[in-house]
Structure formats: structure tokens, C-alpha cells
Amino acid sequence: MAGQKFQYDESGGTFYYFVLSFLALILIPTTIYYWPRKKKEDNSKLKEECQCADCQKKKTILANAEPYRALTSWTIKLTIVLGWALLLFLTYRVSQFDYEMASFDPFEILNVPPTSSQAEIKKAYYRLSKVLHPDKETGDEKSFMMLSKAYQALTDDVAKENYEKYGNPDGPGAMSFGIALPSWIVEKENSVWVLGLYGLVFMVAMPSAVGVWWYRSIRFSGDKVLLDTTQMYFYFIHKTPHMLLKRALMVLAASLEFDKRHNSQVQERQSDNDEVPALIRQLPNLNEKCKEHPLCRMYSIKARAILHAHLSRMPLNPETLERDRQFVVKKCPYLVQEMVSCVHQLVMMAYARRVPRLPSIETIENCMKMSPMIIQGLWEFKSPLLQLPHLTEDHLYFMNKKRHVKNLQQFAQLKPEESRQLLKNLSDFEYENTMKVLGKMPLIDFSIRCEVIDDENTNVVTAGAIVTVTVTLERKDMKTLFGDTKAPEKQGIKDEANEEAAGDEDEAAAAAPVKKASAWAKPRKGGKGKGGKKPAQNQKNQKKVPAKVAATATNTASEDQAAAGNSDAESDAGNAEGSDVESAAGSGSEDEEKGKNNSSLDDDDDEEWERLQAKLNKRERLEGKSRLSHTVHCPYFPEEKQEYWWTYICDRKSRTLLTAPYHVTNLVEKEEIQLKFTAPRWPGVYTFTVCLRSDSYLGMDQQQELKLDVQKAPAPPTDHPQWDLSESEPEHTDQQENLSDYTTDTSDEEDSD
User: Fold this and answer.
1) What is the largest CA-CA distance in the chain?
2) 688 by DSSP, 3-state: which?
3) What is the mean pLDDT of residues 277-291?
4) Which of 339, 479, 497, 641 has its CB 3.0 to 4.6 Å from that of 632, i.e. a possible disulfide?
5) What is the Cα–Cα distance from 237 to 463, expressed in whole angstroms?
6) Count of CB atoms within 10 A of residue 578's CB?
7) Higher pLDDT, 456 or 298
8) Tell me: the pLDDT tens digits for 649-671?
């Protein structure tokens, strides 16, 4: 029976094959992916870019941000070239190897025909042995061994039989296993070095690398935000459920990413002891004397001062504070997104009755406002026209006085001669550059469609149904409005920030109890304040609304959607079985005719199933959505920024968030987003608001009002025994308590109180 043996590569041939294959598998894709390519400068694209002084300064900052780009490119090229040189060398070495023939042919070795007699075979053997014998000058031991084996295979009976059966005169060969590594690896004199290298790689280097990676990764969330920062956001949002914008800015500046103890990239200089106090004296309303931790710490005060200076567009020392400003501002978009996510999670937890206080819609909207403010370097109460290059406050005063132009859309709708007249003190180059930037800004066509997908009648909203709102966003350039004076106004929430900053009397009166409950104010006597029963009165009045109202969606100004009263913080807004609940709203309509035959019902079910499958497939495709849309004009932001948007549904009356803010990151031309939520569990007419907010531009926000006519849910049939839910009735009762009534049931509110 044949044996088995395990051997290393003696000649090194298979080792070369192994290295050659391994190197080729790595080198080919690496070359395709990493080979530096010089970007071709497109003159037409360069002409479309803004040429203002601030944008040119930003280009310089971006160029200086990577000082070793040329060295890195040269190193990559050299490494790839050396890899290909090694690949060619190995290919040449492999081609020079002379291997034994795979098949053993004794007649060919003896150089005799297969019909030769025994005498001719012996004669040929003796003749060749005199030449190949090792004792001869021309001898070759390896060739002589092959010659002897061939002679034996043709003359010896046993060897001849083995050759005829197994192709080898020695019989069946032993099964051998080999490894494509040279044999010197297992040689005794090299064992110490091999063992040391093995221990260094597998026992020191790899565990150390995994440990460092794990230690760093567990400190961050999925968006590369420190978990300690996320916990701090949760604490302050829960502590201040009605957070004002300045308060949100203070919390943002207290992020631990700006603390040197948590981030080694933070620079602390000796000059900060002089420059930071001098900067603080120039900034009003900084509230640097706040005693809350970590808002009172020096890193937080410094970051807050830098953010205030950035929003005021104050020049800073380019060698010290300007570098700190670039570092702080670059971190802010990710931190703002994390703060928005924290508010949403607290809202969902409040719906599930796991936290006592529900963050208001103003809290999450104030967090969202910080993103375009920081991207553009403007306070919220400033005119959005200041996002255009070359425009100053003097231009805005003249434009408002002459033509009452207050936003970007109104300015774009002016005729060319009118806009040129308003900016007559600008040079032709500056005017063309201003209009070029304005023409590339986004103009969003914002529309919504409501339905109940899972019901037979998708146009009727019943109590407790899952309502789906399909938000359609179609992006166009603002230049499509140039000279179009009849285009409708699209920025529906654009004046909300200005009204809040100006201290609108009606809104201040409605939100007065909320503002008194600010987190940093002194404790008030008398508990939670007055007006606790007012939401119940609103609920009673709401029941008097007519039962059937057609669903409509119209653009409304922000002042029409201001909060009209305080509702209980514990009013539920939907099912709380997941923190990733998506936003939606619905529309009601009259019931369809009842006399439909079975075949038509089957057709409707098939069509509904196909629509549902199409939407699910689209959602699966969007899971890997890109983060590239359009480049934002933001000369005061030290990095390239893409246009992103938030869309969500809220209830302005109860000042609550109904759905998770969906972050749209891939709006190039047109996108559809599905937002879902649970309809109120009490029949009636409800007014919700679908909002669209930009995270990059001021004055681009929109909102649409949605009236939802909720019908009474049909009673479940009782003639089906398999639908008997008597055993699970207690569980059903618990679930009913978690459903949202949207401030329509006064008895539930009194029970919760």
C-alpha cells in the first residue's frame, strides 16, 4: 500500500509560483485603484466657480491642508513600480526552471523504438551507461538513475508489470503533500530566527494592532463622534427639553472633541491666555460666566467664542485662533447631526414612556439651524442674501428700500436690468460672479403624497393605521427663476428664525411658559408654573371640528405655523417599537363604494402588492446611497461641502416631532422619500406639517400643511374563531396606552397627570 509523505519545496520552484500568484493578485487591483491620476483642469468648470476673495482664500487653505500630497503621490508611484519590477523578475525566474517530464517513457530515455528486442535494449543501455555513468567525465548521476530505471522497466518482469499498471517501475508512488515554502525554513540552524519572526508577527504585532483599533473604535459612534459627547447631548437635551438656539450653540461648543484630554489634535497655546479673553470682550451674549459643567470649562468657552466669532465673520489671528476656527468648524456638521439624532431618540423614548419629558419640536429645529449657520458663517437673524459674494449690509438696505427684496428667490426673480441697478456699485466682474453663485444655488420643488399602503382603501385613513407620506424633492438651479416674476414663493420657513430672533410678540406669548423653564435659569417657586390644563381645553375644542375634511397640502408661511399653545409633554405620537421610525402623514377621503365583486378586489390586492414591492425594492436600493449631490458655496467653511437636507413631519399645535428626520444626502435631480407614522387613535381632523430643511443654506427651508381626516376604525369581524384575541386582551390594552392620541383625549391626559 502506498505511503504518504509531507515535504517542503527543495528547488524553490513552487515557492516562486506562490509568490508570483500572490503578488499579481495584490498588485493589479492596487495599481488600478491607487495609481495617482492628475486631474485635468476643466476651464469651463473653473469659470463656473466663484472667484471672490473668500473663495480664493479657501482654495489656498485646502491646498495647504495636505502639505505632503506630492510626497505621498511619489511614494505610491515608487512602491507600485517596485512591485511590478519584482513581478517581472519572478516571472523570468519561473520561466527558467527545468522540470522533469511529467510522464515516464523508458523507450524515449533509452532512445530505442517500442518494437525493439531485448538485445537492442541491452545494447542501447550499455552504450548510454558508458557516457552517463557518474564515474565517467561526462557522467550525470540523475540521468544515469533515469537510464537504469528505464532499463529495469523493460527487462525485469516485476518492474515491467508495475510500469504497465502504474506508469512507474517502482509501483504506485507515495501520496505526497507539499507547501510552497523553501526547505530552509525548517532547517535546524534557522529555527530560532523563524520562531522569533513568527512570535513577533502573530503574538506581538497583530494583537497590538487589533487592540489599538478596538480601543479607538469603542470610543466613537458610527458617525465618528465620541460616545462621551453623545452622552453629554442626551443629558442636556433631557435637562432642557425646550432648548433655545443659543443654548444649543453652548452645548455644541462643549463637545469633547474640542477638549485636548479627549482629542490629541486639539492645540493649546500659551498665547490663548491673552487672545481668548480679548476675543471674549468683543463678543456680546457669550454667557461665559455660566457655571454648568462642562459649559464653564475653558475649552468650551474658547470653542464657543470661536463659533460666535465665526458666525459674526470676525477676522482672527491666522497663526493661532484662525487655525483653531478651522478645526472647530470642520467638526460641527457631524456633531450637529449627532445632536439631531439624540433629540429624535429622546422623543421616541418619551413616546414609549421611558423618559418623563418630551423634547419639543423647537429643540430639534434649533439644532438643525446651527448647521447652515456654521456652514455659511452667519447668524440666523441675518439676511440670506449675505450668502452671496460681494454683498454687504449696505447693499441689503438699498435692495430692501428700493425693491423690497428680502430673500434669494425674490432677488433671482428680478429682471436683469433691475438686479444690475440694485448692485450698480459693484463692478461687472463682481456682479457676474454674484449672479453666477446665485444661479447655482438650489431651488427645490417640494411635494407630498399621502396614502395607507396596507389597507384596501389607500385613500381612507382610519384610527391607528400606518400612514405613508411620499415626499418628492426635485432640485433645480436658481437660475431657472431669473426674470420669472410669476414663480411661486417656495421658501416656506425662511422667516421663522428672523421672527424668533426679533422677539415676535405673539410667539413669545405662546411660548412664555417654555422660555421660563430654561435649563440655566434659577429654580422657580410654585412647581412647574401655570397653564397646565390649557392643552385639555384645546383638546375639547378640537372635537368640535367637522368630521370630514378633504386632505390638502399647501405652502404656508412660518408665522401661520407658530406654536399655538402648550401641550402635555407625555402625549404619544405613535408606536415606539424602534428608534428608526420614519416620518409620514396621511390624507383622508370618503369611503369607496361597497358593492365590489370578488374579482375586482383581487385585482386591487394584486396592484397594491406590486406597489408595495416596488417601494420596498427602492428602499433596499437606497440603503447604499451616496453622499454626493451638489457642491455648496461656503467660503467660510474650510472644507468642501455637499448639499444635504432634512425632511420630517411634526405637529405644530402640540409642538412635537412625529417622525424621524430623514437625512437626504443624494439629491442630485429628483428623489422620493417615504415617511411613516401611526395615525391618531381617535377620529377627527388633525393638522400636521411636513418640513424640509437645508443643512447648508439659510433661507432654503420649506414646509407644507397637511390636514388629516381620521375615520373610525371598522370593528373586527366576530364570525372567525381564529381571530379570537381574548387570551391576548391584556397585552392589547397595554399597546393601546402607548398609541398617540395627538391631544384629542382629555381623559388620557388627566390619567397621565
Assistant:
1) 127
2) strand
3) 90
4) 641
5) 31
6) 10
7) 298
8) 999 988 888 999 999 999 999 99
What's residue 13's pLDDT?
Answer: 59
Contacts of 680 (CB under 8 A, 6+ apart): 463, 686, 708, 710, 740, 741, 742, 744
SS3 52: coil
Domain extents in the chain? 4-95, 106-168, 187-217, 227-442+477-522
Distance CA(289)–CA(296), nearest Å, equals 7
Nearest Cα to Cα of residue 668 among 623, 625, 704: 625
Whether the ω angle into residue 294 lies within 30 degrees of 0, i.e. cis, is yes
Residue 716 and residue 464 in contact, taking contact as beta carbons nearer than 8 Å: no
Cell numbers placing 249: 450653540
Helix (H, G, I), strand (E, B) or coil at 364: helix
Alpha carbon of residue 182 to chain centroid? 48
User: Whole-model pTM?
Assistant: 0.67
Q: What angle do CA 661, 666, 670 make, to 5 degrees?
A: 95
Helices (H) and strands (E) in the chain, counts: 27, 12
Q: Which CB contacts under 8 angstroms, 24+ apart, belong to 134-137?
A: none
**188, β-bridge pairs:** none
3-state secondary structure of 211: helix
Q: What is the CATH number of domain 106-168?
A: 1.10.287.110
DSSP 200: I
Alpha helices in 156-205, H assignment, sequence order: 157-166, 191-199
Three cell numbers, residue 504: 415676535
Side-chain half-sphere exposure of 109, counting CA atoms within 13 A = 24
The stretch 619-634 carries a mean pLDDT of 72
Per-residue pLDDT averaged across 585-598, rounded?
A: 39
Partners of 705 in the β-ladder: 554, 689
Beta-bridge partners for 175: 4
Q: Using an 8 Å Cβ cutoff, are 252 and 336 in contact?
A: yes
6-63: pLDDT as tens digits: 555 555 556 777 788 888 888 888 888 888 776 555 555 566 788 888 888 888 888 7
Confidence check: pLDDT of 232 > 50:
yes
pLDDT value at residue 663: 93
Q: Which residues, including other chains, have CB under 8 Å from residue 58's CB and lie 6 or more apart?
A: 635, 636, 637, 638
Is the CB of residue 744 less than 8 Å from the CB of residue 654? no
| Residue spans of alpha helices (H) in 692-752 | 729-738, 746-752
- C-alpha 567/C-alpha 535 separation (Å) is 5
The residues that bridge with 9 in the sheet, in sequence order, are: 182
SS (H, E, C) 493-516: CCCHHHHHHHCCHHHHHHCHHHHH
Residues 512 and 566: their CA atoms lie apart, in Å, by 10
Dist CA 273 CA 718 (whole Å): 78
| Closest by Cα among 541, 592, 588 to 710 | 588
Residue 349 has which C-alpha cell?
423614548
What are the tens digits of pLDDT across the range 100-159? Answer: 444 567 888 888 888 888 888 888 888 888 888 888 777 778 788 888 888 888 888 777
Distances from the Cα of 481 to the Cα of 271, 400, 444, 476, 557, angstroms:
50, 19, 12, 10, 20
CA distance 198 to 190: 12
Pairing state of beta strands 670-678 and 553-555? unpaired
Residue 626's pLDDT band, with cuts at 50, 70 and 90, is confident
State the CB neighbour count (10 A cutoff) for residue 744.
23
Distance CA 448, CA 474 (A): 12
For residue 258, is pLDDT > 90? yes
The DSSP code sequence of 78-119 is HHHHHHHHHHHHHHHHHHT--PPPSS--HHHHHT--TT--HH
pLDDT one-digit tens code per residue, 312-329: 999 999 999 999 999 999
Q: Fill in the amino acid letter for 253.
A: A
Angle between helices 245-253 and 321-351 (to 10 degrees): 120
